[in-house]
Amino acid sequence: MENLIRIDNLHKSFYDGDSELKVLKGVNLEVRNSEILAIMGASGVGKSTLLHLLGTLDRPTVGNIYYEEQDITAFTERELTRFRNEAIGFVFQFHQLLPEFTALENVAMGGLIRKSKSVKLDDSNSLNIGGVYETAEHLLDSVGLSERLEHYPSQLSGGERQRVAIARALINQPKVVLADEPTGNIDDKTSESVLDVLQDINERLNQTFVIVTHDSRLSARAHRTVQLVDGRTGDKEK
Ligand SMILES: Nc1ncnc2c1ncn2[C@@H]1O[C@H](COP(=O)(O)OP(=O)(O)OP(=O)(O)O)[C@@H](O)[C@H]1O
Ligand SMILES: [Mg+2]
User: Fold this and answer.
1) For the chain, which domains are there?
2) Which residue has the higher pLDDT, 152 or 127?
3) Distance between CA atoms of 10 and 231, rounded to whole angstroms?
4) pLDDT digits (tens, 9 = 90+) for 24-34
């Protein structure tokens, strides 16, 4: 399998006045195309920090991140925003769905925003809003929620919300989906259904996932699991 992402000597420190908190201390890691990579490690070790750097939501202190051999750490803010919208899907544990919008609207939103940015203002006919909604409906169908299109987040169970979040992450056909504890606050049975969906999307669409988790059932379904220990990764091949 070819590499999609290559992380080279990644360091991240947080500064508070004169004191430096060194969180990542030289992470080297490759993410292969079409794999599910699980990242595990103790609380506070820097898993979410690593995911934020991968997602271009924050910049490393030292080191480089290459997507298909392109060094994204050299990008300007503007280039990063564009890259993030086009190439990365996010599934985070909290604050993910917009409460005033239906499941369908939540999933479609990222696609509509992307389209509206890619056309000129006087070119509104080419927005093809229908196409985005069709795709969103299809994605919700593929996560088993075709009966929940018009439901609002407050009307959905935790597992259903998480599946909407997964569908939403897929709308722009990202190169990678980054997920932070996708089964973190849901019960065992519901977690299984979320895991089924992740695995199904991976197998059918060859979608690459990088998933931070404490859940050993999730890492059991991953192609590889990496342990983050003391700011570095130890690769545990399966
Ligand atoms: N923006 C920030 N400013 C200062 N310190 C931060 C910031 N973000 C994270 N940290 C610190 O960096 C360390 C790693 O945090 P991170 O959230 O990456 O841990 P984690 O491995 O995801 O933990 P958990 O499993 O509990 O979610 C922690 O000590 C945290 O307090
Ligand atoms: Mg975390």
Assistant:
1) 3-236 (3.40.50.300)
2) 152
3) 9
4) 999 999 999 99
Residue ranges lining ligand 1, Cβ < 6 Å: 14, 21, 23, 41, 43-49
Atom of ligand 1 nearest to the CA of 16: 4
Sequence-separated (6 or more) residues with CB below 8 Å from residue 197? 143, 144, 163, 166
Q: What integer is the mean pLDDT of 55-73?
A: 96
Phi, psi of 183 (to 5 degrees): -110, 20
Structure tokens at 90: 């996010």
Q: How far is the CA of 114 from the centre of ligand 1 (A)?
A: 30
Find the radius of gyration of the CA atoms of the chain: 18
Centre of ligand 1 from the C-alpha of residue 213, in Å: 14
Kindly report the backbone phi and psi dihedral angles of residue 14, in degrees, each rounded to the nearest multiple of 5, phi listed first. -115, 140
Tokens for 188, please give them. 């065992």
124: CA distance to ligand 1 center in Å?
43
Answer whether residue 60 shows pLDDT above 90: yes
Q: What is the pTM of this model?
A: 0.91
Residue 158's pLDDT is what? 87
